[in-house]
Amino acid sequence: MFNISHQLNKQAKATVLFVAKNFDFIDYYSCFSKIEIDQINLFKNDISDKDILTIDLIDKKNKKKIIIYKLKDNLTEYDYQKIGGIVFDSTKSYESINILADSETQIKKNLSLFSSNFWLGFFSKSYIFKNYKLKKKKNEIVLKNISFLSYSKKITDSSISSAKNIFSGVEEARNLVTYPANILNPKKFVDEIIKLKKIGLSIEILDEKKMKSLGMNALLGVGQGSSNRSYIAIMKWNGNKKSKNSPLAFIGKGVCFDTGGISLKPASHMEDMKYDMAGAGAVTGLMKTLALRKAKVNAVGLVGLVENMVDGNAQRPGDVVKSYSGQSIEILNTDAEGRLVLADVIAYAEDRFKPSFIINLATLTGAIVVSLGNEYAGLFSNNDKLAEQIQKTGIVENEKNWRFPLHENYDRLMDSKIADLQNINYSGGAGSITAAQFLQRFIRKGTPWAHLDIAGMAWAKKDTEITPEGATGYGVKLLNRLVQEHYEK
What we know:
Elements: E1 3-5, E2 14-19, H1 34-41, E3 52-57, E4 64-70, H2 77-91, E5 96-100, H3 105-109, H4 111-126, E6 145-149, H5 153-178, H6 186-194, E7 202-206, H7 208-214, H8 217-223, E8 231-238, E9 248-258, H9 278-292, E10 298-308, E11 320-322, E12 328-330, H10 338-353, E13 357-362, H11 367-372, E14 377-381, H12 384-397, E15 401-403, H13 408-412, E16 421-422, H14 431-440, E17 449-453, E18 459-460, E19 470-471, H15 476-486
Parallel strand pairs: 1-6, 2-4, 2-5, 5-6, 9-10, 9-13, 12-16, 13-17, 14-15
Antiparallel strand pairs: 3-4, 7-8, 8-10, 11-12, 14-17, 18-19
Helix pairs in contact: 2-4, 4-5, 5-9, 8-10, 9-15, 10-14, 12-15
């Protein structure tokens, strides 16, 4: 992470300045020499048709750059995050920089809001996963020291701390999703979760013996072809001991690698199936953030951790299993495995914790990518209020989601001729909807429930303003804000 101070660094090679249409930065004249101010003012007209302007200051002793950002009116919180990401991209090759944080009136009026979002975007774009880079670049200059100047050190310090807590959860999710499957098997995932005890989470692990005694044969069936054992990890955060409300429940699909089982996937891009545990990664990252920022809420996160492999003991198409809920499931396709994992975890969570709501996240269907591409997650819910909260929060954080219908006619497509239900719709079509209908069968007590199909959102194939190519950590910011704005007291 970066060394962040609040004193002007006269040795810094780049200075970031924010201006509006009037190009007024009089409060920061003292940060520049008269010659530098004159040079900057020469470019007043050039910024009028640009959002970013970089000026090389003419100084034989010190080669400096001034990077000027023109801010538009009525910027949103996510716009501030984008500015943070853009600033990082523009300054990452300088070892030391100055950022004049409130050189523009809009920022000065909203310093806390600007600063917390700016830093979240800055940290997010700076993410890099180098665990397996064995060759180091020689003489590479990277950003280390940042001087962040504003009228209030107290506000900016608080904002930076807040941004770090949220980004820490996003980073956790991204790291977990990026790990190769030979490293992050279900047991290694459990080990990573156990480390979170040190920040105040209570951790409980259900092993195969315990799950078998509970009748979790849907989940266990998915993992029976793997040499790696299956687990359920339970993370509990008790941040409001006085509350009499039931906890909030977040559930993640954690298929650490998905070959498709006997219903084998094509070889092309199968390596991407290391991130079939992105739902579990998001839940783990969320619980980390809730603990770090000491959220005044009671929440529980459950992740079903399995590996869907092929061997002589693997589950077969046509098998029938009895789930934890007591419902029997005919397995028509072993590649529709995530819903089997979630079925047992959802039903167990509802019985044991009697939660105020259940939200599950899963890279569940390729069909959702056909529908929405990489711009929106699919949202399915039995509760209009919860669905609306998730949708509106997603817009603010740019973790967008689009609600799909649930209907009894879709539900009937999941009826099996020889069991209570089947794990795919053989009639064709509505793949994401019928998968959601399958999951809804395991909400048996009317608990408000939402399912986010994040198959198109877990991995970015190109950079965005705040996300480098690769794992996105989708869901952490969305659900953290949902909790903060609607469920904390």
